[in-house]
């Protein structure tokens, strides 16, 4: 925090590490536009890509802060933020962790503030439970983390249950770990760094190839969703 209580805007945003960005930069760009970044105090939870950080700053927020530690415990005061942004921050966590992150976002947002999340989704909303479980199991095996994508209806229900009003829902195709998508997410140099990392680390290379295979196998049931949800203003009670 600066002396006037605003959040500092970084001149560079290269610290963010590229991770899962299900719908690519196009979906993130539309989500940021719907969230109203310009002139806002923005907090970026568990930054997914340096590109997104740069895109946020390019939109002219009043201030920007990237939180790379626990997204459920930012340490920020209540009601001091206009927009909270996250990419796959909920997908990569279990049910209770999802709820804790959304509770933190609600706490730090001002009334009327927006929570903008870009997540991996399952489709259709009527997807059979055994199919959902199989997809989640395969994704978790591929990434070695507890990937828990939800249907679009479940994502909106989760945000509503956390106290938000869902204002905008957008979707995009997903291409997990495909070279074209990686290049679009992190650029030529970022893709080159990732390629070098995979050449040197066989276990990481195996995970990426398995994730690509899993994404292709379940393509008809995977989607990416960008949601902007609003913190309601306190209800007025007549005397």
Automatic annotation (TrEMBL):
Methyltransferase type domain: residues covered: 27-116
Pfam families this protein is in?
Methyltransf_11 (PF08241)
Gene Ontology MF: a single term: S-adenosylmethionine-dependent methyltransferase activity
Q: Which residues form the signal peptide?
A: none
Q: Which InterPro entries match?
A: Methyltransf_11, SAM-dependent_MTases_sf
Name the coiled-coil region(s).
Answer: none
Keyword set, alphabetical order: Methyltransferase, Transferase
User: Which Gene Ontology BP terms does the record give?
Assistant: methylation
Name this protein carries in UniProt: Methyltransferase
């Amino acid at each position: 925090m600066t002396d006037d209580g605003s959040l500092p805007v970084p001149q560079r945003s290269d610290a963010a590490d590229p991770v899962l960005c299900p719908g690519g930069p196009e979906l993130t760009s539309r989500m940021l536009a719907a969230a109203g970044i310009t002139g806002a105090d923005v907090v970026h939870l568990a930054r997914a890509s340096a590109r997104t950080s740069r895109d946020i700053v390019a939109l002219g927020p009043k201030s920007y802060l990237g939180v790379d530690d626990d997204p459920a415990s930012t340490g920020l005061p209540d009601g001091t933020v206009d927009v909270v942004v996250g990419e796959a921050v909920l997908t990569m966590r279990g049910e209770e962790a999802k709820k804790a992150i959304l509770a933190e976002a609600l706490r730090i947002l001002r009334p009327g503030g927006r929570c903008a999340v870009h997540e991996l989704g399952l489709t259709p909303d009527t997807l059979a439970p055994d199919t959902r479980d199989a997809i989640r199991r395969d994704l978790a095996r591929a990434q070695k983390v507890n990937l828990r994508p939800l249907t679009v209806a479940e994502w909106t229900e989760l945000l509503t249950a956390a106290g938000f009003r869902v204002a905008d829902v957008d979707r995009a195709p997903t291409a997990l770990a495909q070279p074209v998508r990686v290049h679009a997410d992190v650029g030529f140099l970022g893709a080159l760094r990732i390629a070098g990392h995979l050449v040197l680390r066989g276990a990481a290379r195996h995970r990426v190839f398995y994730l690509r295979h899993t994404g292709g196998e379940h393509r008809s049931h995977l989607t990416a969703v960008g949601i902007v949800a609003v913190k309601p203003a306190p209800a007025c009670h007549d005397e």
